[in-house]
Design brief:
The protein is mainly α. The protein has 13 helices and 2 strands, in the order H-H-H-H-H-H-H-E-E-H-H-H-H-H-H. Helix 1 packs antiparallel against helix 10.
Length: 302
């Protein structure tokens, strides 16, 4: 049951993350830039979480031994991931940008094998290849990649930063933190990071429309739910499985791009979507199989 809970939480979080391009587009079209969007999103998320945890009596303090990892995961993991991903939307259709960002399952796999001694299996390699195939089909047009190089690099780097975030949360003591406390501190750190960045680069924008402020408030609320659900899901399933299950993120982004922004939906996208869905189903089966094996081992020990 715990595996199923983890799978559902990750899928829910990923579906919500897929809405981020919508909020980014609305924010930029109403006067905000990428740095300001992240800054305001982090500010409102911090305020909402502070009020929620205060009402629930949740202890917000963090052990000093976690501060280094918290700083690293906040800025190099989540903060720079958001900045590069949102910036890529200025060069690429949202669905394609998010799909290239989806390189992170492969980076998570490589990182878990190289740095955390995870076992590399044929199953994992096959699913990674399937994911790359899906990415190609979703990004290609008439047999060639027809995208901006700058946009591609930004989206790709955002995936690397997100992989770092997943690995750091999965394999460090941050995993034991309360999900809301972790998201609160990440949001608070990023608010100060990007406020300072905006001041130093003279990119702080305050004279924007009411719609822009409503947009970042909604973005903050959705981010809280998604980040908390994702972190909780990591308590039940492996980091690599979580990364593959996150493929619902590009699917949601593509649907947003097609329905709201009138982006093209062709046969390659349909086929790529099918491959990603099959990869998700296969990962779910692997996790359930591992859960059955673990129960069998525990039963035999007794």
């Amino acid at each position: 049951m715990s595996k199923t809970k983890g799978i559902l939480l990750i899928m829910m979080a990923s579906s919500i993350f897929g809405l981020m391009p919508l909020f980014a587009r609305i924010g930029t079209s109403n006067g905000l830039n990428s740095i300001s969007i992240i800054m305001f999103r982090s500010l409102f998320a911090s305020i909402f979480l502070y009020l929620y945890m205060k009402k629930k009596g949740v202890d917000r303090t963090v052990d000093k031994t976690l501060l280094k990892d918290l700083v690293l995961v906040s800025f190099f993991g989540y903060g720079l991931m958001l900045l590069t991903m949102f910036s890529s939307y200025n060069y690429l259709p949202t669905g394609i940008a998010t799909t290239i960002h989806f390189v992170y399952p492969t980076v998570v796999l490589i990182g878990s094998v190289m740095f955390y001694k995870e076992k590399l299996t044929i199953e994992k390699i096959v699913i990674v290849i399937a994911s790359f195939t899906g990415i190609y089909l979703l990004s290609a047009e008439s047999g060639r990649i027809s995208i901006s190089l700058v946009g591609f690099l930004l989206a790709f780097i955002s995936g690397v930063f997100y992989a770092y975030y997943i690995l750091k949360v999965s394999y460090s003591n941050l995993k034991a933190m309360n999900s809301y406390v972790l998201v609160f501190h990440i949001s608070m750190h990023n608010f100060f990071y990007f406020l300072l960045t905006a001041l130093l680069t003279n990119t702080l924008t305050l004279d924007v429309t009411i719609i822009a402020y409503l947009d970042v408030i909604l973005l903050a609320l959705f981010s809280i739910v998604a980040m908390s659900a994702f972190k909780t899901g990591l308590n039940y399933i492996s980091s690599w499985s979580a990364a593959i299950l996150s493929s619902f993120e590009p699917l949601t982004s593509i649907m947003v791009g097609v329905i709201i922004f009138r982006e093209t939906f062709h046969s390659r996208i349909f086929l790529g979507t099918g491959i990603i869905i099959l990869s998700v189903i296969y990962i779910a089966l692997i996790e359930k199989r591992n859960e059955v094996r673990l129960k069998s081992v525990k039963a035999s020990v007794r």
